[in-house]
């Protein structure tokens, strides 16, 4: 059974930073690409960052230079370091793992950035 559990969200002032974590189980983590997405009410879920099994990263234009995705295969965990946060980064952040033809999602963690 695939499980993704996010943590690390919270309330932060604009310009601040947070680090999100996603602990994965039930997948062969070290060969699996992982991703972070976010969603605000009334909008579609959007890609924030991806990391391949080999460590190649992809970012949404809106977060380039501010966010960093990384992974620790020994801990089956993917991270999202978020710096220079802006109010428009406020959203529920979801961890994603495409695995055996399906997309798996965590329950999400709320990030609120106050101005």
What's this entry about, in short?
By secondary structure, the chain is mostly beta strands. The chain has strands spanning 3-7, 10-13, 18-25, 34-39, 46-51, 57-59, 67-72, 77-82, 91-99, 102-105, 109-114.
Explained architecture:
With 115 residues, this protein is an all-beta fold. Helix content is 0%, strand content 55%. The chain is built from no helices and eleven strands. The protein has strands spanning 3-7, 10-13, 18-25, 34-39, 46-51, 57-59, 67-72, 77-82, 91-99, 102-105, 109-114. The strands form two sheets. Strands 2, 4, 5, 6, 9, 10 and 11 form a seven-stranded mixed sheet that branches. A four-stranded antiparallel sheet has the order 1-3-8-7, with no helix packed on it. Strand 9 (91-99) and strand 10 (102-105) form a beta hairpin. 30% of the residues are buried.
SSE blueprint:
Elements: E1 3-7, E2 10-13, E3 18-25, E4 34-39, E5 46-51, E6 57-59, E7 67-72, E8 77-82, E9 91-99, E10 102-105, E11 109-114
Parallel strand pairs: 2-11
Antiparallel strand pairs: 1-3, 3-8, 4-5, 4-9, 5-6, 7-8, 9-10, 9-11
Approximate helicity band: under 10%
Count of runs of 4 or more consecutive helical residues: 0
Head-to-tail CA distance between termini: 40 Å
Radius of gyration: 13 Å
Largest sheet: 7 strands, mixed
- SSE string: EEEEEEEEEEE
SS elements, strand count: 11
- Secondary structure class reads mainly beta
What would you call the shape? globular
Mean pLDDT: 96
Sequence stretches where pLDDT stays below 50 over 5 or more residues: none
β-sheet strand percentage: over 45%
